Amino acid sequence: MKILGLTGGIATGKSTVRRVFETLGAPSIDADEIARSLLAPGKAEYAAVTNAFSICIGPSGLLDRRALADLVFSDSSARTRLEAILHPPIRAIWTSQVSNWRMDDSASAAIAEIPLLYETGSESLVDAVVVVFCAETVQVERVKRKFGVDAVEAMRRINVQWPLAEKAARADFVIDTNGSPDQVRAQVLSVWHAISAAEVY
Description:
53% helix, five-stranded parallel β-sheet, alpha/beta, 5 strands, Rossmann fold
């Protein structure tokens, strides 16, 4: 089974694209979902994060994830500290899954959705990279709606990651999510057919 690394920018539609791949029979894993699971109360990573970011503990005594997000998007040193806690276990989990998939031939490909694929130098661990792309104006509006922030804060969060154009230039495949769901699905199908026909690698 080939491994596709699925990446892009914040709120570009990565999870939507991943779900389309899933409908075609591709198993998947999502680094953001792994991170959320690690931040469940009782996990070692949760304890480490609450110790490091006690300022983000809410009135309930639990971690306020929105406050944490606001902090790390505005403070690069805080973001670095959070990544030092979460990135090693996230990488261990998804690379273990990738190893298992490589011994499985039940599908043409599996999808590893990794938002920071290029930023963390993980592209060498997958067989091909799919970048999900949209116009900056569209991305800003999506970030505003998703996180309830203004345009200035939306751009701050977008600029934390590599520029989309740079990611797209490095990619094996680019899926444009500016259009309709049917247009997005058609592009995913095109990538899937290319993978199934072994047109890459």
